[in-house]
């Protein structure tokens, strides 16, 4: 019996050492990279300096064209992330502040994301390789149900989110395989050919007083970032467009630009403008908020 228990102990110890080594190896790779995604670009940087930083979901990623800001002399990057919620936008801004970014203006797309305080697993996972290297990240995830497993069990997070930060992504990061995520200063243009679904129904969505939006406002106040919060356009066939009015009743400071670009020819799908529409919308934003530049 003693020999059996000793054998089991040795196996468990060997497994623990293996997990620790694998964990360290993956982390080492992710800490050396800043060219595959927006989270690692921010995490592995120091003291960025921008006139305009854009945050939000795909409705930021596909709707704001940094090139047009740059033509006005405004150093700009679009940090919008497709699939992201305000949970991730707040954390990304916290990381920028932690790394002493100098930012004059933050443009935040906050419209449909106001209706929930959930995390987006696909985007939140991108922060997890760094959870032991940032108090900001650890604190942001601290109230998640599986935080203890993610934080204390070596290599657990890489197994749990294998499709997102597991072996394939680690290998591609280690070998420097490029992505298009950082192209066009972070902006992802959508084609104007063959538009997708041009009908949508958002009547079930209910805007709330969102704690992550409140965090973003507080971060901007503490770091002297000028915050401009916007709601961006949707196509005319949407049911439940009064959502935007309801959001404004909770947050009157949010600028409702939902209808400043109209016409299906400007949309790739009902919730996302194509490149032509995005450029028209960006020009409206620049004219409205950066006219002096």
Structural overview:
Helix content is 43%, strand content 12%. It contains 14 helices and nine strands. The strands form three sheets. Strands 2-1-3-5-7 form a five-stranded parallel beta sheet. A hairpin with a 2-residue loop joins strand 8 and strand 9.
Largest sheet: spatial strand order: 2-1-3-5-7
Percent of residues in beta strands? Answer: 5-15%
Helix content: 40-55%
| Inertia-based shape | elongated
- Profile the largest sheet: 5 strands, parallel
Give the helix tally.
14
Query: Distance between the terminal alpha carbons, to the nearest Å?
Result: 79 Å
What is the average of the pLDDT values? 93
The residue ranges in which pLDDT falls below 50 over 5 or more consecutive positions are none
How many runs of DSSP E, i.e. beta strands? 9
Query: Would you list the SSEs in sequence order as H and E?
Result: HHEHHEHEHHHHHHEHEEHEEEH
Report Rg: 21 Å
Counting helices, strands and paired strands, the structural category is alpha/beta
């Amino acid at each position: 019996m003693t020999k059996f228990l000793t054998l089991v102990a040795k196996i468990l110890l060997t497994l623990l050492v293996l997990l620790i080594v694998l964990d360290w190896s993956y982390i080492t790779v992710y800490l050396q990279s800043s060219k595959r995604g927006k989270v690692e670009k921010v995490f592995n940087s120091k003291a960025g300096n921008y006139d305009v930083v854009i945050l939000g979901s795909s409705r930021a990623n596909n709707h704001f064209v940094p090139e047009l800001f740059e033509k006005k002399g405004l150093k700009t990057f679009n940090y919008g992330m497709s699939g992201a919620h305000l949970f991730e936008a707040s954390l990304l801004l916290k990381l920028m502040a932690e790394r002493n970014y100098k930012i004059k203006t933050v443009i935040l797309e906050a419209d449909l994301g106001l209706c929930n305080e959930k995390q987006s697993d696909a985007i939140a996972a991108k922060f997890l390789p760094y959870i032991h290297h940032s108090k900001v990240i650890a604190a942001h995830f601290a109230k998640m149900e599986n935080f203890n497993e993610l934080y204390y069990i070596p290599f657990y997070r890489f197994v749990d989110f294998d499709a997102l930060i597991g072996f394939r992504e680690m290998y591609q990061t280690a070998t420097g395989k490029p992505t298009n995520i950082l192209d066009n200063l972070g902006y992802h243009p959508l084609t104007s050919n063959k538009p997708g679904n041009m009908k949508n129904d958002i009547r079930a969505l209910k805007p709330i007083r969102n704690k992550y939006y409140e965090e973003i406002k507080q971060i901007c106040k503490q770091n002297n970032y000028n915050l401009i919060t916007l709601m961006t356009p949707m196509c005319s066939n949407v049911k439940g467009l009064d959502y935007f009015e309801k959001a404004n009743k909770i947050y009157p400071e949010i600028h409702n630009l939902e209808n400043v670009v109209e016409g299906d020819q400007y949309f790739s799908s009902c919730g996302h403008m194509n490149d032509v529409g995005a450029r028209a919308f960006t020009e409206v934003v620049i004219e409205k908020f950066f006219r002096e530049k």
